Amino acid sequence: MPGPFPYQSTATVPTSRAEIKFGRPAPVCDVTISSRGNLEVIPALLDSGASRTFIPHRIAVSLNLRMIRDDVKITVADGRSVLRPLFVADLTFAGLSFRNHPVVSIAERESILIGRDILNLKLTTLDGPQLQFSIE
Amino acid sequence: MIPSLVYIKTGGSPPPQKISDLTHAGSAGIVNVHFVDSGRAISSRSFIGGDRMPSSGFAFITSTYNPSPSEIEFEEQKREFKKILPLILEQYRGLYIAVRKGEIVDSDADLDMLTNRFFTGHGDVPVYVTKVGEEMEEVIDTPFFG
């Protein structure tokens, strides 16, 4: 069983050294996102509030991800909607791999959101008191 | 949701133009257009030279740039998709379809299954994916989306 992995309050993007703050400790782990031989490691938050996995748009550009749709409607918490592109990438984290997986890019984030498209495939255990999680 | 009057404003503050005048701007590459209603952005979309502009909506051109080879390939697939007859599409209503060179090459009720199967079988090639008869929509219920 992959894990347990410790919750994190902050994470660092390895390439840019940018620090990402999550506030209270959260289920965060590094995701390797790759395509066409290019790869980058990005911190990711397990987010059951996201219906799909979202990646920073700059990653889609820098890795030259394959775009398969340019106008997926994204509705956010306050009811606003935006149209965002859909890409395909390989994702690896916590010992799990997802090949040719559709991901939406958003410009406003530095981290990845692992959404229910992936979480619904796995048994995820959030151990709040121990500040750790596992996914299998 | 989109207002009935149609204008675009290029760059900072030139006078509004009818959106039909935008077509020439697309010839240089992709044009990112933001639709606004009462000063509030309601959606955005990228257009490429030759694309038909919507017949309604306020839009502001925010940038133009030369598209990457991957984007050009995508736009070609999208254009080919638009040539598919509605009667053919109707057979796939409610399903996700993968369209390559104007032909529906695969379909599935599950987007993730479709993309994985398509790229496993075809390799890294351009494709247009859509859901027939329904909008492709995702939701972020957590309040930290910018």
End-to-end Cα distance of chain A, whole Å, is: 6 Å
| Shape type of chain B | globular
- Major sheet of chain B: order of its strands? 1-4-2-3
* Largest β sheet strand count, sense and barrel closure of chain B: 4 strands, mixed
> What is the percent of helical residues of chain B?
10-25%
Q: Label the structural class of chain A.
A: mainly beta
Poorly predicted tracts of residues of chain B: 1-29
Contiguous low-pLDDT stretches of chain A (5 residues minimum) are none
Radius of gyration based on Cα positions of chain B: 17 Å
Q: What is the percentage of strand-forming residues of chain B? A: 25-35%
Q: What is the oligomeric state here?
A: heterodimer
Q: Determine the mean pLDDT of chain A.
A: 91
Output the structural class of chain B: alpha+beta
Short summary of the structure?
The complex is a heterodimer of chains A (136) and B (146). Chain A is mainly beta and 136 residues long.
Brief descriptors of the model:
heterodimer, A: 136 residues, mainly beta, 7-stranded mixed β-sheet, 3-stranded antiparallel β-sheet, B: 146 residues, alpha+beta, 4-stranded mixed β-sheet, 3 helices, 34% strand, globular, disordered N terminus
Set down the secondary structure blueprint.
The complex is a heterodimer of chains A (136) and B (146).
Chain A: E1 5-6, E2 8-12, E3 19-26, E4 28-35, E5 38-46, E6 54-56, H1 57-62, E7 66-75, E8 81-93, E9 96-106, E10 112-114, H2 116-119, E11 124-127, E12 132-135
Parallel strand pairs in A: 5-10, 6-9
Antiparallel strand pairs in A: 1-12, 2-3, 4-5, 4-8, 7-8, 8-9, 11-12
Chain B: E1 6-10, E2 30-37, E3 40-48, E4 57-65, H1 69-81, H2 86-90, E5 96-100, E6 103-108, H3 111-122, E7 128-131, E8 137-139
Parallel strand pairs in B: 1-4
Antiparallel strand pairs in B: 2-3, 2-4, 5-6, 5-7
